[in-house]
Amino acid sequence: MSSQRCTDIEENLEEDLADTLPDNSTSLTDVELSRRSFVKAAGILTAAAATGIPHLAAAQDGHAADATTPHTMTLSLKVNGTPHSLTLDTRTSLLDALREHLELTGSKKGCDHGQCGACTVLLDGRRVNSCLTLAVTANGAEITTIEGLANGDTLHPVQAAFLEHDGFQCGYCTPGQICSAVALLKEHKHNTLSTVSFETGNTTNPELTDNEIRERMSGNICRCGAYPNIVAAVRAAAKGVSA
Amino acid sequence: MNPFNYQRATAPEEAVHAVSARGAKFLGGGTNLVDLMRYNVEHPTTLIDVTHLNFTQITTSNDSTLIGAGVRNSDLANHETIRTNYPLLSQALLSGASPQLRNMATTGGNLLQRTRCYYFMDTAFPACNKRNPGSGCAAIKGFNRIHAILGASEQCIATNPSDMNVALAALNATIHVQGPKGKRTIAVADFHRLPGTTPQLDTNLQPDELITAVELPAPKFAKHSYYLKVRDRQSYAFALVSVAAGLEISSKTIQSAGLALGGVAHKPWHSLEAEKFLVGTVVSPDAFRKAADLALAGAKPYEHNAFKVELAKQSIVRALTLAAQGV
């Protein structure tokens, strides 16, 4: 990243921060910065750092010559039933498209490397890590996020089960856990297998035991360790009883 | 991540032509390539998305089964033909990654998965012959607990991380590829390379060649196979050691055998010596131990991975035992 671009980002950040200040305030201490604005601003700094370092490294490796101009593409996504047209840098992940461009911040960024599952969404009905999905590859796809599961004020049965069984502590991994569990139940209805099915010899029509649930939910990490309650929630949802 | 052009290929010829441009790479599910781009290990200037090519079918004819390169790992693992005739492949696939990643990852992409060597994946380490040829190998004298014990070189001790590839080796699969000069096939044993003096090359696929399909020969191990994966946690982790074992048994005598190891070498380690020994022997713990000793005869561990030698032997005995039992 050039120093010019760093400066641009700093200026944008100052503008963003300024937007959060009442006209007559003179310093940040005069106002209560909203959490959302702060997170947004901090995110810009983080993004600057995250893109800045690879750019420097790329320049050292001699890859910078034809690799400095962003490429943009216009794509269409149907998210939670609503069609959107977006023009995005091709580097944008589906997760960032949802969070930063469509303001659907339910899907979370945990590791950004496909290792934690916090970003799990349904793409054409299948659970995927939206952090490793380039938004351009999802052009034309239908996406369901945590925001799209409930029917108005009626929670999706898996959401209700997570509430009933206290399937979380801090809640950061929960949208991914729930989207993953929704897909799990659908996959199980379609008679899919897991390694546990092979280990237990149930490779025809495996029952959704706790061990099957654990294995099938293993792509979603919970730092708080709410796993027993997550398993209970998925078990209850599978049986069609959330309460 | 560096900026890049993105294009969707609609025909294999178009894809092969497009990838000949400097800095262009094929994009499958992206679970490995996009990750490595984010780490700045890979920096393609053009991505050619090949997931919209018509390579998503699994067909069987003349006893062999052809798997399109674009078939997603989860679909492959759960396909009726694969579950019934090649359960070893289903089990191996389902041992890898997570349900989300398996929904994304493609058959062709899995074949091209790159190593999880920490020194390769972290550009803060200057020495990595695979990432930067000639820069040295930080793993040989570094923290090499997850590294190779078979077939390594002074230039690289990285391992191939795939589970699918191990099963494909034991099943004697054939890789179908298409390039500017036309189509050819490569036996899976010849597809992945040992590091030698060119560890930057994982496979013998040419840069402008596209994987179109994977062919499985007539099934022999449908009744007796097992994929055993040993790792630091029970799920969602790469193998320290894995074993793909397939047996064809008649009257307790082994008629044919498939045995390959994962997590121990730069390529799926297909043990022809052990297979040759097993054929004609009666199923017994002694025979399996002998096969394990043969498979690990050339093992050369490094400072932190000597445990893998015995682990691999024990794992072979267990995988063969479970395969013989049938599940």
Can you walk through the features of this model?
The complex is a heterodimer of chains A (243) and B (327). Chain A is of the alpha+beta class. Chain A has 3 domains: 3-61; 72-148, Ubiquitin-like (UB roll); 157-238, [2Fe-2S]-binding domain (DNA polymerase, domain 1, Orthogonal Bundle), CATH 1.10.150.120. Helices cover 42% and strands 11% of the residues of chain A. Chain A has 8 helices and 5 strands. Chain A has helices at 3-19, 35-61, 94-101, 157-164, 174-189, 195-200, 210-216, 227-238; strands at residues 72-79, 82-89, 120-123, 126-129, 142-144. Chain A starts with a helix and ends in a 5-residue tail after the last helix. Chain B is globular and about 60 Å long. In chain B, the strands form 3 sheets. Chain B has a 5-stranded antiparallel beta sheet. Chain B has 13 helices and 12 strands. In chain B, a hairpin with a 2-residue loop joins strand 10 (241-250) and strand 11. Among the domains of chain B are: 5-51, Uridine Diphospho-n-acetylenolpyruvylglucosamine Reductase, domain 2 (2-Layer Sandwich); 225-325, CO dehydrogenase flavoprotein, C-terminal domain (Enolase-like, domain 1), CATH 3.30.390.50. The model of chain B has no long low-confidence stretch (mean pLDDT 98). With 327 residues, chain B is of the alpha+beta class. Chains A and B meet through helix 2, strand 4, helix 5, helix 6 and helix 7 of A and helix 2, helix 3, helix 5, helix 6 and strand 9 of B.
